[in-house]
Amino acid sequence: MPMVDEKKRAKRVAKLDKIQEKIDKQMEKIAKAQWKQAALSYDKTKALGWRQEEMNINRKLAKLRSEMVKKFENPHEMFQRDHLVWYAAKYGVVGHIQAHVRTPGALEHREEPTLNTPLIVAAINGHLDCVQYLVQAQADVNAVNALGKSALHEACEKRHAEVVAYLMSLPQVDPFIRARNGLLPHQIIRAVALVYGDKWGRYAKCASAVEQRICVLQGWLFESQPDALVNRYIFDHVGIKAHSWVQSYVRVLRTGGTELEIVVYIANGPDSCPAVPVRVIMYTMGDPVESPIRKRNLNNKPHTFSVEGTQEFPSRNPVKENFEFAALNEEALGTWMNFFSNMLIELSAMSAATNRLRGASAGGRGSISVEPLEQLFPSLHLPPAEEPHEELFPVNPEPQELAYEKLFPASAKTMSPEVLSPNAPPLLEPVVIAAVPSAPPFRASILESSPAAPAPVQKGECVVCMDNPREGVCVPCGHHAVCMDCAGLILSDSKACPVCRADIREIVRMYIC
Could you tell me which residues the ANK repeats occupy (predicted)? Predict the structure, then answer.
């Protein structure tokens, strides 16, 4: 079929771009409506009104997408054959991706000058169904564009939380690729949210999806504020040194190397952490960790420790300094100190496994295949673990009114039934190595004294030796089933999960504080 002249082509493409802009605006309105419903949950009348508003927006959105499909008719008149998949991914027309994905060169076509692949451009525009289909068609999920950004980078930067959640559920997606500016995907979220804000919590949801994958330990800690105004006032007028403590929720994140991020949030709970933290400390594995810290004249706390690192956020200071923390009880302190004592060996093994997975992904797209998405991710919410661990020290005795899942409900698109046939056994959800919160809800009196929490109760024993407690989590199947002694035997022998018999890549220790 002959192509139309350049003037007509430009006019038709401009109409497609205009429809895409309208779709983006409607998606922003949906995010606002969902946030309002959660925020006004105490007022049923107002919440119902916003629910009706969301339904109206969805109807407008469906009309716009239908109009997009009509305007994309006869694409051969506008685009070359091996470019059709790229433009169908850009405008969210999954039917044309299905029809032309087998065209030689179409799946990994790169458009000049951005060098975006179809998968990257689908992620940029938030077309979840197109991203899903391209992944099943064995598109390179770790391909980068001219700026060194992968599909995950772009989805994070453009606040497409559903696309981010889906990509992070795929074990072959590498969250440790650095863009040309040196930033990891979760670091891009912080940088952009700091500049543009996060009015409806879309960046926060993206950050949560990424951090669940790369988090190795999290819990409540008191952070010392050495430069607090009250400290300086007391020292200037009385001549004594004092501690000022702020209760914070702290996460330790991997970066793909020998450095860890210690991220400090001011939040009501682990499900309400904002996109922008209070502080990010870069800690190099093996650097000094001291416990207890040196006491001052006033307001000392028990269960203290300090780490030596550099501040990376909000302002970067390359000079190493000591950051002081206090755990809520002796058991939590033991968990943190045990983590810093043993992480060098365990996280080095995890980094080596990650590098092997990167090599497998780069070696060929056929090396990793995916089960049909309707079975793996029916609603973009990963299934709960078979034996969820109990909260040792619940953060809130009553349910949070603005819980994270209520604040940012997911709404996954339905894939077209015409999908490619998989050729591998099902991949279960990726393991999120995280610890449950380790403190009661924050109260003003807790700064002065905190009652001792009950001793943790170890639940479950190793399914292999039936003796030691369960500590190891099989990756990628996610079964929390074995002790670390048996983990070494399994990795050196069968390399199969003792519960489901699936092949395992590694067994990592789960810390609970």
Answer: 114-146
Task: Give me the CATH number covering residue 481.
Answer: 3.30.40.10
**Whether residue 137 is found in the same domain as residue 196:** yes
The residue-averaged pLDDT of 41-65 equals 92
Structure tokens at 80: 């070359």
Residue type, 369: S
Which residues lie closer than 8 Å to 437 by C-beta, 6 or more apart?
218, 219, 220, 249, 269, 270, 391, 393, 394, 395
Same structural domain, 174 and 315? no
Residues 445 and 464 in one domain: no
Closest Cα partner for 99 from 57, 133, 146? 133
Beta-bridge mates of residue 325: 223, 305
Buried-state track 310-321, b at ≥16 Cβ within 10 A, e below 16: bbbbeeeeeeee
pLDDT digits (tens, 9 = 90+) for 312-369: 988 888 889 999 999 999 999 999 998 988 875 555 555 555 554 445 444 443 333 3
Residue 419: inside a domain, yes or no? no
Residue 385 makes CB contacts below 8 A (sequence gap 6+) with 478, 480
Regarding whether 100 and 73 lie in a shared domain, the answer is: yes
Phi–psi pair at 147, nearest 5 degrees:
-95, 5
Model confidence over 207-224: pLDDT tens digits?
A: 999 999 999 999 999 998
Predicted pLDDT at 33:
92
Q: Which domain holds residue 186?
A: 6-210
Q: Which residues contact 224 (CB under 8 A, 6 or more apart)?
A: 243, 244, 245, 293, 323, 324, 325, 326
Which of 419, 439, 454 is the endpoint of a domain?
454
The predicted structure's pLDDT at residue 26: 93
Residue 342: give its domain's CATH number: 2.30.29.30
pLDDT tens digits, 97-108: 998 988 888 999
Domain count of the chain? 3
Measured between alpha carbons, how far is 181 from 188 in angstroms, rounded to an integer?
10
Contacts of 239 (CB under 8 A, 6+ apart): none
- Compute the distance between CA of residue 218 and CA of residue 157 in angstroms, rounded to an integer: 25
Asked if 245 and 192 sit in the same domain, the reply is no
Mean pLDDT of the chain: 77
What pLDDT sits at residue 461? 80
Q: Could you tell me if 141 and 151 are in contact, meaning their C-beta atoms sit under 8 angstroms apart?
A: yes
Please determine, for residue 63, whether its predicted confidence score (pLDDT) is greater than 90: yes
Sign of torsion, CA 473 477 482 485? negative
175 and 242, same domain (yes or no): no
Residue 407 sits in the same domain as residue 479:
no
pLDDT of 374 > 80? The answer is no
